Amino acid sequence: MAELLTLGWTGAVRPPSRRRRDVAVTLAAAVLVTAQALGGILEQARVDNEPAQSTSSGNRDGSIALGRETVIAAFSGAPYNYPSAARVVNPGAQAATDFTLDPVNWYTDPFKSPIYYGARVAQWFAGGKTGAGVDFIHSKAIAPLDAETNFSGTLDGQPLPPRARIRDIASKFEFSHGHNMLLLNGLLRLPSIGPRVSPYVGVGGGVLLPHTEFQLANNSRPRTYEYNYAGPAGQALLGVEIRLAKLSFFVEYKFTYADYEAPLSEVEGSWLPLDIIRQVKRWFAGEPPPGGHIETKVVSHQVVSGLAVRLAPGR
Question: SUPFAM superfamilies from the entry (predicted)?
Fold first, then answer.
């Protein structure tokens, strides 16, 4: 974990004032949305007069019993991506293309379409203390094209200037439909805080399925605009669940790590399953991506909130 945190800071420069302002506004909006929703949920819980004798969803003291149950949840929130270096390499090109941008101050625009969202399906086992589930996270990682950064290496055999705007080298450079992660998680409930408040932790790993959008500024190569498998991803999470009779409201912090080697297929894609099938066919045919790869690491803090439906609640 220390290595991941170090990675997030290494080589980073202080973001410009506009970026800091955007991050502050995004986090403030997330806090306000969460606070309003939390207030409504707590008020509903306060006036809720569930029968104390209910054995399918509650205890005699009015608390909600923990046990085996299936959870289906949706959430949204505000991520922050650490700056990182990104490398574009195409070993198959006739003229050498192998250059690095350092740093790229990835931004997220979580409330601009396509918005940040996530979905979860989880199963809590007998006793309700341990569980497992799958998260799909749709975030974004967008390079600020008008920002200057450091360049090294060559493009089409020509050395790049040591410093330039990203737009001068690439007219499109983002994972914005999005920076997608599909993760299998192990979950553990911590001791409850009161009759309805249940904190939990989790850790998981899985795959990156981004929508890669990239094109060189000189248009010397076709645009890549498709979903693909791009490498492994992982997360650690800490959350608090407020349990009602059949629903739960939750607030969660996530630390996510994504290790990219995104293929530049130079193809206009369509739908995630079809794009992945096309990528697998290229693998079996031994066809390297014609545009090479983008290699980078996206490390993020994410604060989310959401609603969950609990099926077959514990008895």
Answer: OMPA-like
